[in-house]
Amino acid sequence: MERGRRVLQTARTAAETADVREVGSTGVRALEPLALVTIGGRTAYYPRPSAEQTRAFVERAESGDVGEDVGTWVVEHDPDVGTLPTPAEGPLGVGSRRVLGGCGWTDLGDGAHATTEAATLAREDPDAALERLSEAGLLGRGRGDASRDAPLVEDLRTVRETSGDPVVVVNANESDRRNGTDRTLLGGSPATVLDGTLAVAAIVGADPGDVVVYTNEDDDLVRSRSRRAAVAAVDALGGTTGAGDPDAPQVVAGPDEYIAGEFTMALEALEGNDRLEARLRPPGPARHGLYGRPTAVHTPRTLAQVREALLDPDAFDADDADPGTRLVTVTGDVETPATVELPTGSSLAAARDAVDSTGRFKMACVGGLFGGFTRTLDHPANALALENAGLGTGGVVELFDRDRCVVATAGERVRFASEENCGRCFPGREGSKQLLGLLREVYDGEYRDDMIRELTRVMDGSSLCDVGRSVGRCVGTALDGFETEFEAHAAGRCPSGACEVVQS
C-alpha cells in the first residue's frame, strides 16, 4: 500500500496536464502497484513501476503516447467504457470481470464516483425489481450472508412482509485474510456495492439511513472509501448528505475476530455486545434482526450480484443451479494471492492461472478456513457442485505444495475452532475440543476413524453456528482424500516430512 502511495504521489508531482486519479486494487496483487495510462480508447498497463518509470510514462502520456512499446499490455477499447479494459493474457484475463469490473478503474478520490442505476430502478418499482431478482434465481454468497447458497429473494420477501422498520446490513467484516473477495470489491469498487445495497433497501422499504456497512476494524481504507461512495450515491439519488449525516448509509467498524463475520454475530457486534454468541434460529434476522427489526444481512459479493441481476437479467439463467459468477481468492503456497471472478459453470482450476505457485501441487482447501480438502480443482465453481464434493463456497482456493502435511493442516484448523468458537452451543464448544483430541491421538498411534467421522457428523447436524458445522468438513474431506497419511502418522511416519511423529 505504501509503495502504491509513492507511485501515486510521483505521478501527481510529474503531471502538468495529465489527469492523475486514484483507483483501487484489481485483485491481482502480483501486479501492484499497478499504473494505467489511458488516452482515448487505448490503455497501457505498468505493473510495479519505479519512480523513474512513473515519471517517464507520465511524460509520454502528456505528449499523447500511452507507451505501446513499453507497457506490459496495451488494450484497445470503447473510450467511454465504464469497467476495466482487461488484457486477454496474464492474470487479469482469468475468468470474467462483471462485478469486479470497477476494481482498478473506478475513481476513488475525493470526487467519488456514484453508480446508482440499480438503486434508481428499484426505487421506481420495488415490486418489479423483486420479481426480476426472483427470475434471476440469485443465491447468497459468503459465510457472512443470511441467505448463503440459498435464494436471496426469499430473504428479501420475508424482510418486506415483517412488521417494523427494515434494516440492510452489508456484512464486510472478514478477519480471515485468506479471503480477499469482499475487501477487494468494497475497497476497489464501493459504488458497485452501494448501488446494489441501496437497491435492496428500496425493495424491502428501508431508507438509505437504515443501511449499515459493517467492516473489520483493521480496514480503515475500505471504510473511508465506502463513506465517500455512500455519500455520493445518496446525493446522486437526490438527497443532500454529508459525512455522518443520518440520511446516509452508516459505515462502522466491527471487531477483528473470525466469529464476528458470522451473520448473527455481526448483529451482536453492531448492537455493542462484548461477548459475541450465535443467535438461535428461527427466527432469523429477516424477522428479528438488528435491535429486533427485520434485517437483510448480505455480503458485498451478494449485493454486487444484485446490481448485475437488476441491470443485466439476461446474464442470469434461473435454470442454472447457481446463476451469475463467484469471486474466489487464490492463496496458500503461491507467490502472491489473487482475487478473480469465475462464471459458476467454469472450473475452479482456471483460478490457478492467476497466481504463480511456489512448489508442486499436492492439494487445495476450497471454501476458506473450514473449507474442504481436495486433490483436484476440477470442480465447477457453483454452490451445488462444491457442496456435493464436500467443499466450501466461502470464496477461497488455498493451494498447498507437497511439503504440506494434511493431518497437521487440518489439525491447525480444528485447534483454531476449539479456541475461537463462540461457546454458545455444546456441539461447537465441546465437539471441537474432542475432535482436536482425536487428531492428537493419531500422533500417539491411535487412529479412530469411525469415531472421528461420527463426531464430525454430529457437529455438522447440531451446531448452532458456522464454526461448529464447518470444522468437521475440513477433517472429513482430509480423511476421504488422504486416509493413508493418517494411517502413516499413526504408524509413526509423516509422508510429507513436515511433522515430527513421536509415539508414546
From TrEMBL:
Pfam families assigned to the protein according to its UniProt record, in alphabetical order: Complex1_51K, NADH_4Fe-4S
Domain NADH-ubiquinone oxidoreductase 51kDa subunit iron-sulphur binding stretches: 407-452
Keywords: 4Fe-4S, Iron, Iron-sulfur, Metal-binding
Region span, Disordered: 140-159
Manganese keyword on record: no
Gene3D superfamilies linked to this entry: 3.10.20.600, NADH-ubiquinone oxidoreductase 51kDa subunit, NADH-ubiquinone oxidoreductase 51kDa subunit, iron-sulphur binding domain
An example Gene Ontology molecular-function term: 4 iron, 4 sulfur cluster binding
Family: Belongs to the complex I 51 kDa subunit family.
Name of the protein in its database record: NADH dehydrogenase FAD-containing subunit
The organism of origin for this protein: Halorarum salinum
